[in-house]
């Protein structure tokens, strides 16, 4: 089994639904340690992506889908998560460019490129209480699963589970990047909203792989 | 043509305010606001930054200044979408927005090339060479085409110094300070004002010179005599104020 354009489209549509469902939760997380706009910004961004997906021509590849997601998020989100997730999807598009079907190893390349894009843009390290704390363990878990011969859905599931654990693990951290870094010790005890939304996005990728 | 300046802020009002403030001291410099989201909310807009970069670059390049978090991410992302040639003309500078913009605008108005405009903005960080005399930059005079060639003064072959009294009632405030720095920047030789770099707006304003202050202009370069004299005359003229 491999995943293709149908999966990519289902992933993004599922993401839009999940972000809308968790909009208030993300706003609340962000209000505690940031400026409170994360849920609203991401909801606006992914909502704007949906009609764009309809305009993709037949024969589009997963890479084409991710490019549309990238440019739409970059130009509609308005907060830091726009350039960050936008760059992630842009680099992911580059990693699987020209492929109609993506296997387990391809998914690891996709996840790695996305993570590297976020690092390139945000310059955060693991432990800075950012979305990297979800993405880095996700890439490692996905790679380990692929190496042990797991199928595509299992690779995505391993990545999503690691991202979810990574998001929870941001709670005791002091933030070193973003608006929360102004709060110092007061950020301790709160989950990073970007790590949480990253985990939601990666979980949606599993649910789309049927 | 001069280097353009793009102000990227989360707030439309902040960006426009900074443009207005910096523009007051830099006639002829293109300073563009890219503040707020596409619909005017708090945030930064990829499209506004991209459009702003295009309209601000006259071919001599753009110095980009930004405020918080996503502003620099949006600016860097916008750069990634440009071709290498356009990208090479743009420099994103990490400096306090208001002070950096004012210093950059004055440097741009004096015809400085992009590297010097960026360096002027960085003096707002309070580090670097803000207080030290600036050494003439290799080839920069030719690049801006407006520098005055300082001819060797035959009578003096040693450092030159001159003290004058500031007559302006409100002291050396922003507008005359900008005029002073612009004139100093047109000369390649290093000149100091009470020990501070005459080409650094923020260093000059930081002296807090009030009416009646004695201003000591000096140059270690024997060819700098005309520069010191011109600056001394400007101060004695009261900058057109009374």
UniProtKB/TrEMBL annotation, chain A:
GO CC, one annotated term: cytosol
Classification via Gene3D superfamilies: 1.25.40.340
GO biological process: glycerol catabolic process
Keywords: Kinase, Transferase
Domain of life assignment: Bacteria
Record domain DhaL: where: 6-207
GO MF, any single term: glycerone kinase activity
Alphabetical list of Pfam families matching this protein: Dak2 (PF02734)
NCBIfam families: dha_L_ycgS
Protein name, UniProt field: Dihydroxyacetone kinase subunit L
Name of encoding gene: dhaL
TrEMBL record, chain B:
Domain PTS EIIA type-4 as annotated: residue spans: 2-129
Keyword Ribosomal protein part of the UniProt annotation: no
Keyword Transferase assigned: yes
Matching InterPro entries: DhaM (IPR039643), DhaM_N (IPR012844), HPr-like (IPR000032), HPr-like_sf (IPR035895), PTS_EIIA_man-typ (IPR004701), PTS_EIIA_man-typ_sf (IPR036662), PTS_HPr_His_P_site (IPR001020)
Gene Ontology biological process terms, A to Z: glycerol catabolic process; phosphoenolpyruvate-dependent sugar phosphotransferase system
NCBIfam families given in the database record: dha_pts, PTS_HPr_family
Record protein name field: Phosphocarrier protein HPr
